[in-house]
């Protein structure tokens, strides 16, 4: 995988609250993430994430998959919007719809997602489902996973993970809040590694290459 132009342009796909989007802006402002967010695409017109994007001067688009005849047709519109923004990296930040395969193919190993569990455990669904499943399974550790997006949902090569404890009296929301803090740290770190061209996919594994001198 070749290194993108520097600083690379990121396209972010959202559906809701946008706390991970906000964390990316903060990481950029803090010099932790050397990138520019060129477009934010939302699957919902009422997503608070859209306001966060607008506040940061980022162009936004609302592309609602169910308004199209097929998921593939919506996918083509998403591809066009990302390409028009010159996006090299696509970041799913609380994006709910399943991306059509045409988008995944157009940006092969350039789309990343964050999931609130230690994958491959508790794949699928959004908070609080994975956290509830973790509680029900009695695990002592929960966490989050940054991974490349492939056609298999939540099963692409893993880039980064962070674990948090599951405490005896936790509710799913307690775990979600603890995990979210880690999400906000590791997502921008993982994207920065990608931006530096340091992620090499080898089968199901991702090798992190040493920093260039
Ligand atoms: C997070 O729980 C993330 O792990 C999942 O969707 C949620 C997004 O939250 N993919 P936010 O919109 O970034 O606040």
End-to-end Cα distance, whole Å, is 19 Å
Strand content: 15-25%
Bound molecules: 5-O-phosphono-beta-D-ribofuranosylamine
The total of helices stands at 6
Which segments are poorly predicted (pLDDT under 50) over 5 or more consecutive residues? Answer: none
Lateral arrangement of strands in the main beta sheet = 3-2-1-4-5-6-7
Structural class: alpha/beta
Largest sheet, in brief, is: 7 strands, mixed
Q: What is the CA-based Rg, rounded? A: 17 Å
Instruction: Write the H/E string, N to C.
Output: EHEHEHEHEHEEHEE
What is the total tally of β strands? 9
Helix content: 25-40%
Shape: globular
Question: Mean of the pLDDT scores?
Answer: 96
Structure description:
By secondary structure, this protein is an alpha/beta fold. The protein is built from 6 helices and 9 strands. It has helices at residues 19-29, 48-55, 71-84, 101-106, 129-137, 172-195, and strands spanning 9-14, 36-42, 60-62, 89-92, 111-115, 141-148, 158-165, 199-202, 205-208. The strands form 2 sheets. The protein has a 7-stranded mixed β-sheet with strand order 3-2-1-4-5-6-7, sandwiched between helices. It has a two-stranded antiparallel sheet with strand order 8-9. Strand 4, helix 4 (101-106) and strand 5 form a beta-alpha-beta unit. The longest helix has 24 residues, at 172-195. The protein is globular and about 50 Å long. The two termini are 19 Å apart. The model has no long low-confidence stretch (mean pLDDT 96). 5-O-phosphono-beta-D-ribofuranosylamine binds at residues 16-20, 49, 93-94, 114-116, 126-127, 144, 183.
């Amino acid at each position: 995988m070749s290194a993108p132009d520097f600083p690379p342009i990121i396209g972010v796909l959202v559906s809701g609250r946008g706390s991970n989007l906000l964390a990316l802006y903060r990481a950029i402002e803090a010099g932790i993430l050397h990138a520019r967010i060129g477009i934010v695409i939302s699957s919902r017109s009422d997503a608070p994430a859209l306001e966060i994007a607008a506040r940061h001067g980022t162009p936004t688009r609302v592309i609602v998959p169910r308004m199209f005849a097929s998921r593939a047709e919506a996918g083509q519109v998403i591809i066009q919007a990302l390409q028009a923004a010159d996006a090299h990296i696509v970041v799913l930040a609380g994006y709910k719809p399943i991306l059509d395969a045409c988008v995944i193919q157009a940006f092969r190993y350039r789309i990343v997602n964050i999931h609130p569990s230690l994958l491959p455990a508790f794949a699928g669904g959004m908070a609080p489902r994975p956290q509830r499943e973790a509680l029900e399974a009695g695990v002592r550790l929960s966490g989050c996973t940054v991974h490349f997006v492939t056609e298999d949902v939540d099963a692409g090569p893993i880039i980064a993970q962070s674990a948090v404890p599951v405490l005896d009296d936790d509710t799913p929301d307690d775990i979600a809040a603890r995990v979210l803090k880690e999400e906000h740290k590791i997502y921008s770190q993982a994207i920065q590694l990608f931006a530096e061209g340091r992620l090499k996919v080898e089968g199901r594994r991702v090798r992190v290459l040493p920093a260039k001198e």
